[in-house]
Structures are given as structure tokens and as C-alpha cells.
Write a sequence for this structure.
């Protein structure tokens, strides 16, 4: 039995993804996976981050990136488990061979040595959010030196801010917390994913007319598999990538 396009709740924090049962424990989230004896299961980690992957009103877990991964695995006839963790922890677990991969994520210099990314599974553009009346210019040298900025904890955006020595004052665990802190005046600007910040703004009922949005660059979202996993499974990434174009076309109405 192959995974469906989303994971359905059974009870509590238990989800069934096709023939695989995933138990999710929240806060510092841990996961235990059960599958048929002898069935090989690819262990993937993700985060609760709309619209790429998040809990729906009925308790199921789905989103732009989740549906592409599910479609791809189904096309490969590959069993997999999907566990939800705080984002930084998911990446550490993959690095320690406790997970085989994680998504959705963008290219980052410190991932090159130990991961290999798939073809893009979802679009993303980095954007700066500033107040509508802000005179700050994110492209200026003064901005980097003086502006108080923030980004999602564990993200490639935060790593970029650290690497380029911005004045970081926020590193929130979720986009909603990041945006709420920004709106409360705790930072001059935040950088994030266009779709994720827009979704967070909708949930917080923030009028985007109050915000100046400055595009930064396109940063496609991928699945990153550990090189340890790929070494054990030659050809896996090629087969995975071969399924992505058809899956993205099938879900083109949901993915910008």
C-alpha cells in the first residue's frame, strides 16, 4: 500500500500515511514509525510550516511540498515515513543518520558536504518585510550595519544573515511568532519566504497594506537527502527526481 496525498489522523497525534503509522509528539517533537515487517521505509523529517506542510482543520497533515513528496514516493512505489520536528532538529537528525532526509529546504553552503538536494518541489522567493512607512533600504550598506532584523530559526535565511553579519535581534521558531514580534516593533525588518509569511499574515489578520515587501531572490524548495543514505541506495535520487516533473504538473494549480 502506498502513501496517500496526505496523512490522516487516527487518534491523538497518530497519523496514518498509506500503510505506515507515524506517531508525533509535539513541543520537542519525537517520532516513532511502524511499518510492515521487512518493508524498507525512507525516513523523512519536515516542519509544521504553512503552506508547504501543515496540519489541516481536520487534523491531517498536507501542503504544497508534502503533496509533491507523497506523489513522488507513490510513483516510485516507495514506502516512507514523515515526522514533524522543530526545523533545526530535523536537520541535525538527518546529519546524524536518524533521518534519511528533510524538506522543504533551499540550497545552503553548509549542507553541501553532507546532503544532496532533489529537483525543486515547490517555488519560494525570499522577501524582506518592513513597515509601510519605513525609509530603510535593504540593499544599502547602512541597512546591514544599523537595521535590527530577524528570520526563522534554523533557516537558510538566518544562516545568511549570520554569515553576512547583519544585526540580528529575532530568530523565532515559527513564521507567526516572527511576524508577530516584527509587528510589535521588536525588529526593523524580517526576511522570510513569500508564501509562508503571507500565510502567517492571513492567520494573524495582518493587513499587508501596513507592510512594505521587498523581493530578494528566488530560492526553490527541495528535498535534501543525506549522502550516507544515498550511498546506501545508489540511483535513488535519480529515480526520485524522475517523478517530480509529472507530480508538479499534477499539482500546478496549488504551486504558484
Amino acid at each position: 500500500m502506498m502513501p496517500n496525498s496526505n496523512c490522516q489522523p487516527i487518534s491523538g497525534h497518530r497519523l496514518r500515511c498509506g500503510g505506515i503509522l507515524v506517531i508525533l509528539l509535539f513541543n520537542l517533537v519525537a517520532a516513532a514509525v511502524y511499518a510492515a515487517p521487512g518493508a524498507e521505509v525512507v525516513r523523512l523529517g519536515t516542519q509544521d510550516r504553512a503552506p508547504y506542510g501543515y496540519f489541516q482543520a481536520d487534523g491531517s497533515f498536507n501542503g504544497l511540498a508534502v503533496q509533491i513528496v507523497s506523489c513522488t514516493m507513490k510513483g516510485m512505489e516507495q514506502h516512507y515515513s514523515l515526522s514533524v520536528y522543530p526545523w533545526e532538529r530535523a536537520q541535525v537528525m538527518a546529519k546524524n543518520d536518524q533521518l534519511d532526509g528533510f524538506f522543504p529546504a533551499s540550497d545552503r553552503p553548509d549542507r553541501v558536504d553532507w546532503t544532496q538536494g532533489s529537483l525543486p518541489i515547490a517555488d519560494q522567493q525570499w522577501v524582506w518585510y518592513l513597515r509601510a512607512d519605513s525609509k530603510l533600504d535593504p540593499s544599502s550598506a547602512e541597512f546591514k550595519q544599523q537595521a535590527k532584523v530577524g528570520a526563522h530559526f534554523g533557516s537558510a535565511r538566518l544562516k545568511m544573515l549570520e554569515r553576512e553579519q547583519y544585526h540580528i535581534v529575532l530568530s523565532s521558531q515559527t513564521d507567526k511568532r516572527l511576524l508577530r514580534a516584527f509587528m510589535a516593533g521588536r525588529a526593523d525588518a524580517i526576511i522570510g519566504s513569500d508564501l509562508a509569511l503571507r500565510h502567517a499574515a492571513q492567520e494573524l489578520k495582518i493587513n499587508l497594506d501596513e507592510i512594505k515587501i521587498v523581493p530578494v531572490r528566488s530560492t526553490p524548495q527541495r528535498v535534501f537527502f543525506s549522502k550516507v543514505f544515498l550511498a546506501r541506495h545508489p540511483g535513488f535520487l535519480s529515480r526520485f527526481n524522475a517523478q517530480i516533473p509529472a507530480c508538479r504538473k499534477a499539482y500546478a494549480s496549488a504551486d504558484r
The domain at 8-107+114-121+222-250 is CATH 3.40.190.10 (D-Maltodextrin-Binding Protein; domain 2). The CA atoms of residues 50 and 196 lie 6 Å apart.
